[in-house]
Amino acid sequence: MQITSVGILGHGHFGQFVVTLAKRFLPGIEVRVYSRRSKPDGELFYSLANTAAADVVILCGSIKGYAAQLQSILPHLLPDSVVVDVATVKKYTTEMFRQRMGERRWLCCHPMFGAESYRKQQENVDGFRIVVTETTLSDEDYAAARDFLSGLGFALIEMSADRHDELLADTLFMTHYIGQTMARAGFGRTDIDTVSFQSLMNSVESVAHDEELFVDVYNHNPYCETAAVRFHEAQREVLDDLLQHKAG
After folding, report:
1. Do residues 88 and 168 make contact, with C-beta atoms less than 8 angstroms apart?
2. By CB distance 3.0 to 4.6 Å, which of 10, 11, 165, 176 could disulfide with 60?
3. Where are the CATH 3.40.50.720 domain residues in the chain?
4. For residue 73, what are the CA distances in angstroms to 7, 29, 30, 47, 111?
5. pLDDT in tens, 9-41
6. What is the pLDDT of residues 122-152, one digit of tens each?
7. How far are the Cα atoms of 67, 93, 95 from residue 100, in angstroms, in the given order?
8. Reported CATH class of domain 5-159
């Protein structure tokens, strides 16, 4: 599978990060970005039609706008274009791809890292995990993509979309949940932070700016509500235990 161009739909926080990775790891490849907020300049930003007519097209829009974004590119795709879904939820988007993309070439995955993780690891991607839930790529093309990414240091994990969402509700979503809670409660770094608190704040800061993503994941991952309720009930039990000990 020869790639000469990559189209990136969306230039928000994650879209900008994908541009950074594409330019670093795909030197010499034309990178086209479509953003409703930026006029085409023929250097980085292009029209929707030109961006979608790339060898690889990566959807980086919001989850709530995903269906509209996917629909908008369908008339412009090349016959052999590979459309890549990188959304944080996978049951919702994988089913969408099955219904709307059919036998076109597509790959549903979720990079389990972002710009903050990349920065804090000094741009070292070794061990960064990418979950792959489903693809219509040929075995040969998928193996080539997997070997290329593995060669860069990424670790690919294959699992069902349902299993991904179940695990994500207990991990990344709860990190967002705790991060949003810490931020609203006014907790922050101090001059006497322990190493463990510094680690906690690293996690909080990595997701604190993603309130829209936090809400979108909650709305489109069927396991998030159960996880949030379970955490809230356990938190209440811990506080009740402390109050009882204080009373005693």
Report:
1. yes
2. 10
3. 5-159
4. 11, 20, 18, 11, 22
5. 999 999 999 999 999 999 999 999 999 999 999
6. 999 999 999 999 999 999 999 999 999 999 9
7. 9, 10, 9
8. alpha beta
